[in-house]
Input
Amino acid sequence: MAGRMGAVRRSLPTYLVVGPFAILLAFPFYWMLVTMFKEDLDLYDAQNVPYVYNPIQWKFWESATTKHVEFLFTDTKYTDWIVNTVIVGAVVVVITLVIALPAGYALARLSGGWGQTAGIGIFLVYLIPPTLLFLPLSPLVARLGLQDSLLALILVYPSFTIPFSTWLLMGFFKTIPQELEDAALVDGCSRIKALVRIVFPISLPGILTVVIFAFSLCVNEFIYAFTFISSTENRTLSAGVPNELIRGDVFFWQSLMAATLLPSIVLALLYNAFLDRFIKGFTGGAFR
Output
């Protein structure tokens, strides 16, 4: 009993620090969940607008409705936006892995300081803001005839997913002892077989980190999706939701909250499922 009380006392400071952060981070999700079931009159009431929380005067269970969620799926192209986002994200992830994996490995094994210098240079490319890049990319997309096509996003998105992924994988590959590859080469493996059988399985946390990171970037990107896609049915979530659910000065608050919350839950579950590997990938630790 005394040992259990001692463990509680030792962990109490941790809970006191982490608890407020957890509540603060979870509050937007809670607020979206509550708002998506509100009636329109609740939003016009000064006591119930989305910016004021008054649990005494507003009884959620008496006025909850699902009609705004139904509106999202029946009166908008929300399902098309989800499908478009998944297609673009999946293809971009594959392209990113095909290019970033060998590039990150080559930079990690490059002798001298050239590999580190090149890696930093590639990472700096990622830091260039999209607000500058979409200007020269717009005429390129138009000349290729890809305007209002998902191929435009598939072509453009690797321009910011590949640099960061390459830099991330380079740091991860550096933590893998080269002696493992040398031993595989001595046993008769070719360089490619050593990569496939030894390096890549060990690098799975880093690869999963790249997959999750690249897919999240594709889901959240707005400028390119808004600039290159004009038709409603071809939009992705990031551009479709604000463009179709904000009409002039009319905000469809409940549907906006539902459209934002649903993909957020999916991404949160995805991050949680691979949390340990994700942390290992970002910290660059291939071994415990």
